[in-house]
Amino acid sequence: MSGRLPLASLRPQLDATSDGLRWTVDPDGVRGRVLIMRGGSAATFPLVLGGPVAFTARAMLLPHDWRDREGLARAWIRVSTADAGSHEVFSVTLAASDSGQPRGHRADLPLPAKTTALTLGVDIEGAREPRALNRAIWVDPILTDPAARPLHTPPPPVGGHAGDEPLISVLVPVHDPELQMLEDAIESVRSQTYSRWELCLVDDGSRNPQIVHSLERHAATDPRIHLTRHDTAHGISGATNAALDRASGQFIALLDHDDALTPDALHRVAETIAADPALDMVYSDEEIVLESRRVWGHFKPDWSPDTLRTNGYTCHLGVYRRDLVREIGGFRSEYNGSQDVDMILRLIERTDRIAHIPDVLYRWRVHAGSTAGNSHAKPYAYVAARNAIAGHLGRIGVDGEVAFGPPGLYRLTHRVDPALTVDLALAVTETTGLAEAATSWCEQPHPAWRVVLGAPEAITDSALDTLISAGVAPENVTVVAGGGLADAASAATAEHLVLMQTPAMGLTRDWLTRLLGYSAQTGIAAAGPVLLSPDGRIVEAGIALPDGIALHLLHGMRSSMDKLFGYGTSVFNVSAVSGVLCTSRASYERLGGLRPQYRGLALIDYCLRAAQDGRRTVIVPDARLRAIGPDITTNDLPALWDLRADWAGTHTRDPYYNPNYRADRGDFTPTAG
Asked: What does residue 495 show for φ and ψ, rounded to 5 degrees?
């Protein structure tokens, strides 16, 4: 990988002029990554460069705008440097016209090593009439850095020795579905490109004679199809257990009677198992389909146990080792509607040999009776899932409560010992925002906390006075003169640390308890909140590294928790967090603390080292804070290249950011429609 960095990968400053920005790909016939800007908007990308960098882009109008609108737009670029201030270095006027496609105007600019910011903007010239232009676009803005560290990636690991092709038993409990949907489900198994399958159908008391006839006809025409009939309904767990009893394959696959597999589904599963015969569970991506049209593609992360406990995300297609499912007791009727969630939670108490296939192998059909099409279709299923999660927590020794979120999502609240000590460690260069942040810390309910503050010697007294005036007891403050964040963390003595890269005030009252609840869990090294800007946009919400470049997830988006991060209840495993991070003292010491050479990326490096050590990082989206200190947004290219080069062996593919998402930005945009 060269030192080419799409501007979409970097973070803009979040201010009033940057609210009219939208990244997209190939809009309106324009090929490439495109930044759409409303008139009067500007995007400023703060930069730290290790040497001269080249910037290229094209400025133009969208085809429908030059064809259908009137007026002029001016696209411009401004460069700021440490010694010469800010100067406009490129400007072009884009005119709408009734005929003739306007050419894109190429900007090809050298950025000196002293560059501190690159700003792209659009102004609209002339009167604003109904048909007047109101936007322009930048196509494929790219930085090229010749100083980027080269990658020396190790060769890919050699796959495991392919064993015998496993027999996969597809279990389908049937109870009076729509006939055509049942036919489609059965045909999707019969048309598999993989032949080592058996289909175990259980008619669970269907009353429609057409359904009974269809099942009997299929069983009579293919010896791989086995039919069991119940005169009266045993419920979905009873029917699935009957199918499990009939199964003879090493693995079972669960298929609902109104859904369908893709033709290569079992082949892909068999390939995955052959590459690692020790696997006990395999799951894939899925799509929700309405009348043969994809409504939504569910692109999932690799194995994410903390996500699963608040969001049964693995869902379809799920394939499990048959003997293990039988050993744990199969499916339990008291959890009908979420019997698969209960089974999976019991299964993961016995194994972590779990693989994810990041491709759509299952089609979940939308209709009035399915939860895919109607979240109120099976309300009992949500109660069953909550009970299953609560039972799982009790069995693994996690002290917490499970509350309902929106349908299918849950909020796990850990009980945190009030005596658990925590130090809030941060470093400041000025006291802006410190009083407001400290006031909010005093209002949160966890009692056993202190502040460890690194500050230049010239402001240590004023910083201490600010904290005390905000209500922090003097005995609960330690000031490290001349220290940075790593120095403050090293001076901390509590059982847990909250590392803040900028002063942040709590927005949710229990934010500290929420973070401590997760950082105290076995296997979790770091927990991060959602950090918001003063105007409510997301500053930090986790980090993905799909191509080795740190992408700040959802940066700049409005934080409507009704749409982002599982409606604000579901916790997500991520590769790293930044901005604010909670970790145990034991983890911090085990990992060797922060490495200051990564500067603003030090928290990301910390999380990657935790993953290398076998421990996880989570985002807790209903723990929310607001950054109120000076804007520390920066895009430190030398640090980015160092991080990429140092972690190229493990993070050229991010385990939690599905490869079906675009790797040039962290907004979960699919690579294809």
From this structure: -70, -25
